[in-house]
């Protein structure tokens, strides 16, 4: 992208973050003020919860970051919630009935009030997270409990006796499936769930159930409306199936080299991998070009 964007939106897992869930904070601490100086908004756009995204971006509090969480269902900034797109109330009992029938999966519910983990899915969730550590080549903690998992992936989560014991209005059901069964389960869910509910595969066996038509592009539309911004001025980065609408909605969509072919085909440009921190390198190069253009 040669022209100056007004909004930069980045996916986290597999895009901005390395496989060990980190990024070069020193490089980003130099990039962010340069973006602000040019009037460019930086948006973290992810299927993760808002508290987890804040956890990833620890050290950058009150520095103007905007969050599109829950795959577009939740928009927030430093002041708190800006927009939310919950499930239709009549769909929630059917969703719960279907996911409870899949006894091999881990499941949670994210609502307007918090994040809730049913205790009866403890074994499944711990099994999935062990697989995640193994697949990414990380050492598995000697003890790995559901509480450890909650603290790492869903900070602020509350343990509940049953999936039905949540408070607030549901906006996402995160499911953890055996990776070899993910596509099969996703296909089943598309057939079994109401048409107003969509399963989105986001990697490492994760499937997020979200309201149909709500995706990261929805969050960007909400943001553009608030900022009176043109979508043509959005520069977006992603690597997953749940990034495709965002990449297409943006004026310039950038896919990671580690993205599946369908995602790369949906983008305007393909760059390096998340392990190479290719997004940071791209932003540094873009800022250098913009500064050189302003100086000429």
UniProtKB/TrEMBL annotation:
Key words, A-Z: Hydrolase
GO molecular function: magnesium ion binding; phosphatase activity
Transmembrane spans: none
Xref: NCBIfam families: Cof-subfamily, HAD-SF-IIB
Key word Hydrolase present: yes
Coiled-coil stretches: none
Keyword ATP-binding: no
Protein name (database record): HAD family hydrolase
Gene3D superfamilies recorded: 3.30.1240.10, HAD superfamily/HAD-like
GO CC annotations on file: cytosol
Matching Pfam families: Hydrolase_3
Lineage: Bacteria, Bacillati, Actinomycetota, Actinomycetes, Micrococcales
């Amino acid at each position: 992208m040669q022209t100056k964007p007004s909004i930069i939106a980045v996916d986290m897992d597999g895009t901005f973050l390395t496989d060990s869930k980190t990024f070069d904070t020193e490089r980003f601490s130099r990039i962010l003020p340069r973006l602000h100086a040019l009037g460019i908004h930086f948006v973290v756009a992810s299927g993760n919860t808002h508290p987890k995204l804040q956890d990833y971006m620890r050290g950058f509090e009150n520095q103007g970051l905007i969050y599109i969480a829950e795959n577009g269902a939740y928009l927030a900034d430093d002041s708190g919630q800006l927009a939310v797109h919950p499930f239709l109330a009549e769909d929630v009992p059917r969703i719960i009935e279907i996911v409870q029938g899949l006894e091999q999966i881990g499941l949670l519910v994210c609502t307007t009030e918090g994040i809730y983990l049913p205790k009866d899915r403890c074994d499944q969730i711990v099994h999935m997270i062990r697989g995640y550590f193994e697949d990414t080549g990380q050492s598995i903690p000697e003890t790995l409990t559901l509480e450890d998992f909650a603290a790492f992936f869903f900070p602020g989560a509350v343990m509940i006796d049953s999936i039905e014991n949540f408070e607030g209005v549901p906006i996402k059901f995160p499911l953890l499936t055996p990776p070899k069964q993910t596509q099969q389960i996703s296909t089943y869910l598309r057939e079994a769930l109401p048409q107003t509910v969509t399963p989105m595969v986001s990697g490492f066996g994760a499937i997020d159930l979200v309201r149909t038509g709500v995706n990261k592009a929805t969050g960007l539309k909400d943001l553009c409306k608030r900022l009176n911004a043109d979508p043509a001025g959005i520069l977006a980065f992603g690597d997953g199936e749940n990034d495709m609408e965002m990449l297409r909605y943006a004026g310039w969509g950038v896919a990671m080299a580690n993205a599946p072919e369908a995602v790369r085909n949906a983008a305007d440009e393909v760059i390096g991998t998340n392990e190479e921190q290719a997004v940071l390198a791209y932003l540094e190069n873009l800022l250098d070009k913009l500064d050189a253009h302003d100086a000429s």
